[in-house]
Amino acid sequence: MKKSFLPISIEISGQKILIVGGGQSAFKKLELLKQFNAEIKVVALTVCDEIKRSGVEYREKEYDKNDLQGCLMVYSCTNDKEVDKQIVKDARESGVLVNIHDQPGMCQFISPAIFQYGQVTVAVSSNGRDVSESIRVRDIIKNYLQPEFY
Fold first, then answer.
1. Which residues contact 68 (CB under 8 A, 6 or more apart)?
2. Element spanning 76, H or E
3. Is the same domain home to 128 and 88?
4. What range does the domain containing 31 cover?
5. Cα(40)–Cα(47) distance, rounded to whole angstroms?
6. Is 137 a domain residue?
7. Pair (32, 100) in one structural domain
8. What confidence tens digit (pLDDT) does each residue in 89-100 have?
9. Cys bridge to 77: 7, 25, 28, 136, which one at CB 3.0-4.6 A?
């Protein structure tokens, strides 16, 4: 069955969000989430320097189900299918929304290509099927709304 994601905006200010993985994909998610004032924690065996300098809480350790305690959502950026499967299982059992990087079939939610223009947030999604196209369309809208910057 093809997934069909409902585009919604969700209040995450002050909400605990876990990112599992410590590389560049995790850092990009972290940067996005920081824009919305989430309480972010990163767990990974190895954490890149950008995450270490980001000011968010991080732990260099293996993922454990207890890391999900109190979280609204979890992003897995591990590129490890077995760990991802465990995160999906644990998150669903714990009532935590789950996103597996580049695996929309395993996700309960996806992150659209986002652009903020004043009080307006534009989010473009392809239901996880074509991220490049979502970014291209988002950039067209961005260029239209902010022509003075390009």
1. 18, 74, 90, 91, 94, 96
2. strand 71-76
3. no
4. 16-106
5. 14
6. yes
7. yes
8. 999 999 999 999
9. 25
- The total of structural domains in the chain comes to 2
- Summarised one tens digit per residue, pLDDT across range 28-38 is 999 999 989 99
Per-residue DSSP letter, 61: S
Q: Are strands 113-117 and 120-124 parallel, antiparallel or unpaired?
A: antiparallel
Please report, as a single letter, which amino acid is at residue 32: L
Closest of 85, 123, 124, 125 to residue 103, by C-alpha: 85
Phi, psi of 16, deg, nearest 5: -80, 125
Note whether 32 and 88 are same-domain residues.
Answer: yes
